[in-house]
Each structure stands twice: as structure tokens, then as C-alpha cells.
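Take a protein:
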Amino acid sequence: MSVTDTTPARRTEWTLYERLEELRLIKDEARHGPDPAATDRQHAKGKLTARERIALLLDEGSFHEVEQLRRHRATGFGLEAKKPYTDGVITGWGTVDGRTVFVYAHDFRIFGGALGEAHATKIHKIMDMAISAGAPLVSLNDGAGARIQEGVSALAGYGGIFQRNTRASGVIPQISVMLGPCAGGAAYSPALTDFVFMVRETSQMFITGPDVVKAVTGEEITQNGLGGADVHAETSGVAHFAYDDEETCIAEVRYLIGLLPSNNRELAPTVLSDDPHDRRSDALLDLVPADPGRVYDMRAVIEEIVDNGDFFEIHSGWAGNSLCVLARLGGEVVGIVANQPATTAGVLDIRASEKAARFVQFCDAFNIPLVTLIDVPGFLPGIEQEHNGIIRHGAKLLYAYCNATVPRVSVVVRKAYGGAYIVMDSRSIGTDLSFAWPGNEIAVMGAEGAANVIFRREINSADDPEAMRRQKIEEYRSQLMHPYYAAERGLVDDVIDPRTTRETLIGSLAMLRDKHAELPSRKHGNPPL
């Protein structure tokens, strides 16, 4: 018989030894849950328990649990007979590589991890503690939404979580790890956090489930087809990362935490790098074709530049024409934004602009310097893009860069055309230092398009229009697109040997390390959301 069952008949006189034995039994029940078979059911689904997940996330032996003995006070619908300890959520703090991290984990074995009033209050408390302590917050989500039996009290609990997510935004890193279902209003808490991790076949996120979708629209779809990991990592952009199993997913969460500062008043952790600061990258001369129309993988360029070729890509499956990565240069964490010529020629479109804008905002909020690698032919033209608001969405990236006060260094790797060049952290919008490789082409548009506009009459009236077109293209390129045109006008600080890019970036960021920039006094700006 459990301690919980005997609670009403407790004796009034106890020795301290008896009290300690009672406490041991109570805590043992809290750790293992009221139903041993529930753990087996969790494992049968291929899922770990909440405590097993916390053990993977935090350094061994570092977890300190808060309100382990909390129980709900609700009555009705049979709840008064079921008052398990923890109330279905485990909260506390520990360390990741010795640094404090706060965590809460839904325990699906208890009420399906559903949120009730006491459950929500525990989460509110640990969120408040994380904000006060200035330490990252990780949520391990595996819950069935609001506890229906508690009615509006459960819904109000979500409101308190959303409010704290918003208050913590830009103050401490917030990471949501989806390890089970997340439906209805519960999905909005992860959406408010900085990063969302998901596990394939295990986690789903949606506002209305497949049954509701079918009833309202007649469309039939599975849970994974509606809101699975790959859907959100590749189609909706809700998830930043998707993995095949929980162990890999949680290990990557640990790795990400190691790249982030604890709060917005600190810098990201520095490590000693055994990769020489002045290492020359001869491979860069062959990686990037001179022909601006030929594709290549910008990831290979990043790999050559950063410490030991190691980088952590954000949103790798979504908006592939824009790359956002965290890496180290000289042991210091940097955020790298780059165009990706291997995907739709690296053009900026709605998704790429949104992806890069949010990453720039994150880096700026947490004092992570920004490096921008530019090879962009412009914004993606088309009716769909225009009607879906490419102007408004492109302005998000423009706003994010213009508003950023962290050290900013940009490198024009190859071409940089039109408004997309301006948006990609050009000198005119405030980058601290702008460099270019010798093959750069910085212009309003490509030479072919420019010649067709400027010399239309000459070309059309020529005896050999095609020969005249080639002549005018070369004339425009030689006069307005030669590699030193922007440098001569002070729009590029230097044209550099590509092989020295790493050394140039490390030296520039070292100089800018103590950069201080003042923003106008205001409550907040009004970005083009």
C-alpha cells in the first residue's frame, strides 16, 4: 500500500526515524509514479520517461527538483481520488557542462502530462526562477494539452506560461524539446521560444488535430502528416531541428546550450581553439566558381573558415536558400548568415528573409557577433512572392540588421545585386566592416539585365544585335561592376585574398569585441511582423 493511500490515517506521534522512513516512501512514490505499469507503457511507445530525459539533458547528479511533492486541489470528475505527487510535471535546475540550466518536463505517465492549475503553477515558478537567475530554460514537452476536468483554470495556466515566455524573450535562451503530442493552445509556448527541437514519429504539434480537420474541412490526414517533425522542420518552419531519436535530440540540445550565453548580460562561452587564427584556406580558391551563374555549396565555404570546420546549422531543412549557423572563430561564438547558391541560386524570398531575420534578432539579443557571407542575385521575382508580401517579409531582415548593435562584419563572396545586397548587411545599413573577394560583382543588377535596359535602342538598331549586346554587357561590366568599384567609393573596406578570410574575420571581430552602440530612447520599435 502506498503512502498516499494511508495519508488520512496518519498517526500523530512519530519518531524522527519514522518520519524519515515516511519521507523516503513518499519521495520514492513521487519518483516512480503512482502506476508502475505506466512506465512500461511509455517505453513501449519508444519514449523515455520525464526523469530519464532530464538525466540525459543535465550533468550527472546535478539535478535539483522543485516542488516534487506538489499535488492538485481540484475536485469533481474523479480527480479527488487521484492526487499523484508532482501533478504530472517535473521541475528544477541542474547543470550542462557545469553551467546552470532550468528545466521542466511533462510526465506523460500522470494525467497524460495534461496541464492543470497546480501543474501550471509549478511551471510558472521555475520560469520565474530561470529569469531571476539569468539561466537558460529548457522545456521537455510531452503532454495532452489542458486538463479538461479542471476547466478554465487549466487554460489560465497556459496564459501564465505565455506571459513568462514573452517576458523571458531576449533575456534568457528558451529551448523547447517536443517529445510527444502538443495540441491546441499548448503549441504556442514552444512557438514563443528561441528554438524548437522535435523527434520523428514521436512528437507532433498542431492547433487542431486530424479529427477536427476532417470534421471541418473534410480533409483526411495523419497526426504526423499534419504536424510531425519533418512537416514542421521542412514545410512550416515551426521546428528548427528534427531527429530520429530522443537521445540524439537531447544530446544536440546540450551542444546548442554550450554555444549560447546564459543570459543577455553575458557573452557566449569562449574556448581555446587549436585551429590557428591565421590559417590560410587555399581550398576557397577552388570552392567558389568565378562564373556568377555556377552553383556551389556555401556550407563548404563556412567549413573552411570556422574553427576546425565545425558549425551548428539552424533550420537546415527549411528555406535552404539562406544559411544560419552558429560556429566559433578563434574560440569565440559567432552567428553566420549566408546566401546558399546551391538552392534557388541563393535568392532571397519570403521564407529565407524570415529565417535570417529571426536568427539575426536572436544573435543581437544575446550578444553574438554576426558574420554575413554574401552571394545573392536579388529577391525572388514572381506573382506569388509579391502577393504573399515579399516586400513586408524582406523588410523583416532589413529591420533586424539595422536594429542590431552587436559587432557585424560582411564579406561579398561573389555577386551582390540590387536591394538584396543592401539587405544583406551592407555598409549602408550599418555593418561595421565590409570586405569583398576579388571576384565580387556589386551592382544594381547583373550585367546582362543592365545592358538590356540601358542600351536597348542601340542593341535593337544594330546590324548584329547579339554582337552589340555582348559588347554592351562587357562595357557595363568593365565600368560599373569591376571588383574595385565599390571599394573605390568606400562601400567596401577592403578587397581581400579569399585565403585570408578566416584571419581577416577573427582580427576584425577581436577589434569589435568591446563595441558599444546606443539605440534611440523608445519603448520598442514597430518591426514589419
Notes: Residues 99 and 392 are 40 Å apart (CA to CA). DSSP finds 22 helices and 17 strands in the chain. The radius of gyration is 27 Å. The first helix runs from residue 3 to 6.
